[in-house]
Amino acid sequence: MWTDESPFVARFHGRRRVWRLHNERFNPLTTQATIKHDIKINVWGAFSLHGIGIIEEIKGIMDKEMYLDILENAMILSADMLYGREDWQLQQDNDPKHTARVVKAWMTHNNVPLLPWPAQSPDLNPIENLWSILDASCKDRKCNMASKLFAILRDAWGTLDKSLLESLVNSMHDRCQAVIEAKGGASGY
After folding, report:
1. How confident is the model at residue 67, as a pLDDT?
2. pTM
3. Average of pLDDT values for 74-101?
4. Is residue 32 within 8 Å of 16, Cβ to Cβ?
5. Of 13, 62, 86, 89, most Cβ neighbours within 10 A?
6. Are residues 2 and 55 in contact, defined by beta-carbon separation less than 8 angstroms?
């Protein structure tokens, strides 16, 4: 089960190219206003070959105590939903809050099987791609409140296609091979 956190903003900022003639530089029809202080939230989520787990809004700055709360609630529920009594492993990156002594003790006490993860792991976690896909899937969102933004993301999360999840999971062999070939560096995934 792959997990991670990601930020999202109220207005989608996908890449755009603007084509204009030199004399149109300041024409209002060929310029675009920028957003200086957009609404931003952070979310935690989990997914596997079996489907999506819970997506959870992170209120404030996540520290090890907040992460423990997510583990005890959202992560355990996600594992139960996705695996039941099947064997599974949890993937998390090496963020300091994920590797804090109290978190490691909780993992051991609760028999959570951790997938070994390299100290530096560029491009390996497929949930990073899932976050981008989720963001783009609700690019037409119009909201001016964090709670509305989370509701939009949660609804879009619930509609992610299982074949997409399978494709991301099945890409792991190629991801790992690409990182090995790049000698641990970025690989394009």
Report:
1. 97
2. 0.82
3. 93
4. yes
5. 62
6. no
